[in-house]
Amino acid sequence: MVRSLFKQRQSTSAEPCINYLLDNNFGSNSRARKPGREGTYHGESSKWIRLLVEEPYITDISSVLVKEIERTTPSLVSFTSSVVDQYPWERISGVALQNEASGERVCITKLYSLISGFVGNLSVNILMGKTLLDVYPNVLPDISTFNSKFNAMLLGIQRWIPFPGLVNAYLARRRLLICLTVQNAIFSQIENGQEPEAVWRDLDDVSAAVQARMRERIKNGYSVEYAAAEDLSLLWAVTVRANALIFWNLVHILADPKLHAEVLGEIGPYAKLKRSNSATFGLPEPPQVSLDIDNLIGSCPLLMATQRETSRLYSTPYTYRKVTSNINLTESDEDASLNSRDVQTYHLSEGDYVVIPHSLRNRNPLYNNSPDSFDPRRHLIKSTEADDLEDKKDPQDVVNEDERDCSEGWDDPASVCWKLEQRKVIGTLAAILVTWDIKPAEGEDWQVPNRRSGSLIDEPKDIQVMLKMKS
What is the Cα–Cα distance from 139 to 68, expressed in whole angstroms? Predict the structure, then answer.
């Protein structure tokens, strides 16, 4: 049924639903929009929607992303007790130092807070430039607070209604809109040849895609307040889901020793921790991570299967569409047979709305055996072509492409960020696995934490872990 809808995409529109999200959740208003909104992020005819999926932007952003993952992963924790000298993501995760009997230093920390802060900093810096977090260091905590009541805002619950945590979420959104409004105003000043404040003079590291987006909005006369609402939607989309996906995926791999060993063996040729024998001023050079991201995605089927299973199990994606011309949706023969009935056809009239909660299918036992269990091998199939058998006695596990149709978090064809998000998740996960030894605090066995419902993905209860760098 979902495939049938996407095949008739020209008869539906996401525009009214996106406008509703912009107004209710991201603080925009209908007066700030123009028909067609040429050059903006949202809107199916826009230029911006292509900036993260077409050249040269996708290659440029992906290249910077991988280099930043390689550079920063060995700095996941700094092994310093001074809060002033810690990285921003350490300060929000309660890092504490501990010396083992062998003399090795280990860190005790909250894993989800650490991962969220680390990946969030990476995402914001790559897209929006480092100055934004330098001037407004609370952007990521505010995104977390805002996201915690995202569904309440989606329902239109106003801040004056007594709803736990809602006022704080609205205040966090206000602070986010202020800082993004200022950044857009400063960029506009620079484009007009004016001199900005000293703290904002370095915006050269804002990604080329985002700069192109800002210029399109300036050219088409959009206000900086409207630009801030669109930028907030982007920051929310590129941080919230990736942070939780990496955490859930990492915990499930670490909690299964056999799976952990198999994944490490698979990614070994493409993700390496390199140590230098040279020293600077008497201090050893820090280790470096080397990633071959294309082969991690294309030649590591088990790693990719763990990512897909994590997305299936925890993502809560929705597709919203308004019907713009009458259509008929016919379910597949497979769906009809699973429900023991004849094939059904549904008529949708112009003006109807369609909501697809993909998680219902992902967690339906008709489509997935033991849907509440983490089983990445369900996404692997055996490839037994005759040519392969001549070279290999054992069949090769490959990702089942037929399962990729619009069923998980980033598989909606309308998504503009899934390629970038995939590289971020896979690259960060592989880099952490080869760089850090992570165990539950106090020698406990691994326990997958409880989860709570979220906007894009179910979020975990935080857990305490011990980290030390692999030798």
Answer: 20
Do residues 226 and 41 make contact, with C-beta atoms less than 8 angstroms apart? no
| Phi and psi based region of residue 120 (left: phi greater than 0; alpha: psi -120 to 50; beta: remaining) | alpha
Dihedral (CA of 202, 203, 207, 208) sign: negative
DSSP alpha helix (H) spans, 268-377? 293-298, 301-314, 333-338, 358-362
CB 86 within 8 A of CB 94: no
Per-residue pLDDT reduced to its tens digit, 355-381: 888 888 888 888 888 999 999 999 886
pLDDT digits over 12-25, tens only?
Answer: 888 888 888 888 99
CB neighbour list of residue 194: distance below 8 Å, 6 or more residues apart:
none
Residue 428: exposure state from Cβ atoms within 10 A (0-12, 13-18, ≥19): buried
Q: Is the distance from CB of 202 to CB of 183 less than 8 angstroms?
A: no
Contact of 38 with 47, CB cutoff 8 Å: yes
Give yes or no for a contact between 343 and 328, defined as CB atoms under 8 angstroms apart: no
Residue 415: strand, helix, or coil: coil
At 12, give phi and psi (nearest 5°). -135, 165
The span from the CA of 129 to the CA of 122, in Å, is 10
pLDDT of residue 443: 75
Domain that holds residue 119: 2-469
- CA triplet 267, 269, 270: central angle to 5 degrees? 65
* Residue-wise burial string across 321-351, b where 16 or more C-beta atoms lie within 10 A, e elsewhere: bbbeeebebebeeebeeeeeeeeeeeebeee
The CA distance from 262 to 303, in Å, is: 9
Tokens standing for 187? 């960029």
Domain total of the chain:
1
Q: What percent of the chain has pLDDT over 90?
A: 44
Contacts of 353 (CB under 8 A, 6+ apart): 17, 320, 321, 322, 323
Cα–Cα–Cα angle for 360, 362, 366, nearest 5°? 85
CA dist., res. 95 & res. 107, Å (int): 6
Report the alpha-carbon distance of residue 110 to residue 462 in Å, rounded.
Answer: 6
Beta strands in 18-175 (DSSP E): 96-99, 105-110
For residue 431, give the CATH number of its domain: 1.10.630.10
